[in-house]
Amino acid sequence: MKALVILLIFSLSCMSFAFDTVELPLPNANKVVVKLLFTNGSISDPAGKEGLTFLTANLITQGGTADMTFSEIQDFIYPMAANYYVTVDKEVTIFTFEVHKDFLEKFYPIIKGLILTPSFSEEDFQRVKINQQNYVDQVIRASSDEEYSKKALENLLFRGTNYQHMKQGKSASVAEITLEDAIKHYQAVFTEKNLMLGISGNYEKKFLKKLSSDLQSLPDSQPENPRPGKVNMPNGIQVEIIAKDNAFGSAIFTGFPLEITRTDNDFAALMVANSYLGEHRKAYSKLYQEIRQKRSMNYGDYSYIEWYDNGGANMLPPPGVPRHSNYFSIWIRPVQIAKQLKQQYEELSNIQVGHAHFALRMAFYELDKLVKNGLNQEEFESTRTFLRSYIKLYVQTPTDRLGFLMDSKFYGREDYIDELDQLLAKLTLKDVNQAIKKYWQTGNMFVTIVTDVSEAEPLAKGLLENLPSPMSYSNIVKAGLSEDIIKDDNIVATFPLNVTEVKVVKSADTFQ
């Protein structure tokens, strides 16, 4: 997109309101999207009431208004095929409303009612709270070990800060939240001075003027938004193993602080390096090739230079989760544990630890090679070419385009996707390799591993004592391996890890 196009699709409203407005007019669209971004997220939760922002926001979208119950709203909007939902992250809460242009005026009272006059009924509160309590008590531990290990890694990275707790809160804190807490929180942080309004699609200026004017009914107080917690720097490689009954395998997440975000131009250089190492859900990346493709150890292995929300479901990075506190991470999808391998292969009946130790070493080994050697010219050119096309897929829908424009403003930019393409175009191989050496390392990392109870202690011993971790192949698989793979395996099996601490934690004791 050229500068002229940017001016047409991205503008600040000239009307005098306390909040910024991001516009994306699309005259040929058949839909209108309204986004209300409040610069408060889970870091705004009071101590002892962690999860309050998440509960309050979901009570608004899963409750009624002064005029209609939740059930009545659903019946009313069904013929319009309208949709609305809320997303809560560490620093922002975003309400999204989507409707066909022909039903915009009819749908508008729902937008207005939910945001300005939510009913906050006791019945809705109890329903929403029970669901949230169930998530922090049971679902996070039972539904996906991969998501579990990811949340556990954030718990380590941000321990002791307002970023530590899950946006859904903790078991004890959610139990303490009352309806009165939710009402007071809504009045305190969902204010006019805490708002950014976004609108895209086929709408008229008079509608935007009416919406903006009505939003002035929000409280006009200025919330004291807390400063985002800083990422902890690990001292060596610090490992937390979560021992879980009947775990499917060993799910691994590892990471360390990253001092840049999309605000910094260096981010584009690091984006190329990261795409080469472990682009999300892409088979060409190095981690995927070495761990999955060549060795058939798991379903996939990826790396990230910023928070990637719901990576298990999202094939492309979603907008709406901007953060000031950032970290690098590697996701190693579940690998087999010793108990499973022994049951499947008689030749592996004597092993004590499954594939987790080797897989972790493999990831560190590949990252270490990249830090030391960088990319070559061919790797740089092919990865950059891919990215310049790929990032355009981030904004395929009006909702996503609007979301990324609003994220851009959060980071102090105008149009992140367009600016990123320009930065990528100007990059050199030297820029990328300098960024790798400046921001990446393998000596200090946090590691979380969700694994079976039977695997936890043997794995902890192997990591803490830096024991060799030879890859355990079945005879059939081993017979088909090349000499190069066997040679690399021998190197990886004893690759030194700077492990300084290993803790084994019972699954029931997490997120309390």
Descriptive report:
The structure is a single chain. This protein is an alpha+beta fold. The chain has 2 domains: 3-215, Metalloenzyme, LuxS/M16 peptidase-like (Cytochrome Bc1 Complex, Chain A, domain 1), CATH 3.30.830.10; 237-509, Cytochrome Bc1 Complex, Chain A, domain 1 (2-Layer Sandwich), CATH 3.30.830. It has helices spanning 3-9, 52-61, 70-77, 104-116, 122-142, 145-157, 171-176, 179-189, 205-215, 266-278, 286-293, 338-344, 356-373, 377-390, 398-410, 416-426, 429-439, 453-464, 475-479, 483-493, and strands spanning 11-12, 20-25, 31-38, 83-88, 93-100, 195-201, 237-244, 250-258, 301-304, 326-335, 445-452, 499-506. Strands 1-2-6-3-5-4 form a 6-stranded mixed beta sheet, with helices on both faces. Strand 4 and strand 5 form a beta hairpin. The radius of gyration is 24 Å and the shape is globular. The model is unreliable at 1-14 (pLDDT under 50).
Summarize the structure.
The chain is of the alpha+beta class and 512 residues long. It contains 20 helices and 12 strands.
